[in-house]
Design brief:
This protein is α+β, with helices and mostly antiparallel strands. It has one domain (1-124). Helix content is 38%, strand content 18%.
């Protein structure tokens, strides 16, 4: 099945849902990271299994929307949306502390290669807007 291609506007319209999913991912991922060193204690292994399954389900939910979760250290909540800028395939990039999707990078550049999305491609999206 071909991947969805996002415009900056569409990526921003999905952000209310993506933001909630990423918040849940960060909460569960941070708990997993915190308790993992105690995996041999009673009940901890079972909780790790539950957290792992919940994280997998949340990542799958993002994949069904068409975006990719990139922060398995559970520090920043990075998400990439496949897109196109100036006729070239790119990844529109959002971090959970940012108010909107306003950055992109080439597939091989990663987060360090982020550039601002050209202003003419960004449209103001009302808070709580849905795709």
């Amino acid at each position: 099945m071909p991947r969805r291609t996002f415009t900056p506007t569409l990526a921003n319209r999905t952000l209310p849902l993506v933001r909630r999913i990423v918040a849940d991912l960060l909460t569960r991922g941070r708990e997993l990271r915190q308790i993992a060193p105690r995996h041999s204690e009673p009940g901890v292994a079972a909780r790790l299994d539950v957290l792992g399954a919940e994280i997998e389900a949340l990542v799958d939910e993002l994949n069904r929307i068409g975006c990719d979760y990139k922060d398995f250290a559970f520090d920043e909540g990075l998400v990439d949306f496949p897109g196109e800028i100036a006729g070239k395939p790119v990844l529109l990039c959002w971090r959970s502390d940012e108010p909107r999707v306003a950055w992109y990078h080439a597939h091989d550049a990663g987060f360090a290669g982020r550039q601002p999305i050209p202003a003419e491609l960004l449209e103001e999206v009302p808070a709580g807007a849905r795709p």
